[in-house]
């Protein structure tokens, strides 16, 4: 049972699916998200996979004996000639007069 600021949380079947035990390099037991997917590489580093999907390239790495995950940049370099602001406008639209009146 976990008590936080006067609230009591009782373990349940759904709770145990959200978290799972994991050991750090120094053997410290911790709880990690249920979809936390890792595996050691040939150098002893721990690789972490995005959203628990081990078929995807790893997105983070803890160096052997380290304490923190470092991000692995997986995006190819962007070329300025290929960037068009028009490609990113779908969530923007003119503000309606009613919305402006409401803010005033």
Question: What brief labels describe this structure?
Answer:
flat; 104 residues; alpha+beta; two-stranded antiparallel sheet; four-stranded antiparallel sheet
Please list the strands of the largest sheet in the order they lie side by side: 5-6-7-8
Mean pLDDT: 83
Radius of gyration: 22 Å
Tally of extended strands? 8
N-end to C-end Cα span: 49 Å
User: Element order, helices and strands?
Assistant: EEHEEEEEEH
Our count of helices gives 2
Topology record:
Blueprint: E1 2-4, E2 7-9, H1 13-18, E3 19-23, E4 29-33, E5 37-40, E6 46-49, E7 60-62, E8 70-71, H2 97-103
Please, could you describe this protein's structure?
12% of the residues lie in helices and 28% in strands. The protein has a domain at 27-74. The model has no long low-confidence stretch (mean pLDDT 83). The termini are far apart. A 4-stranded antiparallel sheet has the order 5-6-7-8, with no helix packed on it. A two-stranded antiparallel ribbon has the order 1-2. The protein has a two-stranded antiparallel sheet with strand order 3-4. It contains 2 helices and 8 strands, in the order ββαββββββα. The chain is α+β, with helices and mostly antiparallel strands.
């Amino acid at each position: 049972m976990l008590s936080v600021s006067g609230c009591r949380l009782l373990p349940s079947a759904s709770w145990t699916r959200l978290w799972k035990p994991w050991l750090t390099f120094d053997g410290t037991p911790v709880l990690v998200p249920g979809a936390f997917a890792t595996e050691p590489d040939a150098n002893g580093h721990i690789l972490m996979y995005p959203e628990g999907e081990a078929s995807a390239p790893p997105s983070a790495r803890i160096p052997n004996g380290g304490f923190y995950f470092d991000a692995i940049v997986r995006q190819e370099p962007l070329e300025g000639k290929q960037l068009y602001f028009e490609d990113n406008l779908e969530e923007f639209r003119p503000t309606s007069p009613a919305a402006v009146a409401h803010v005033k």
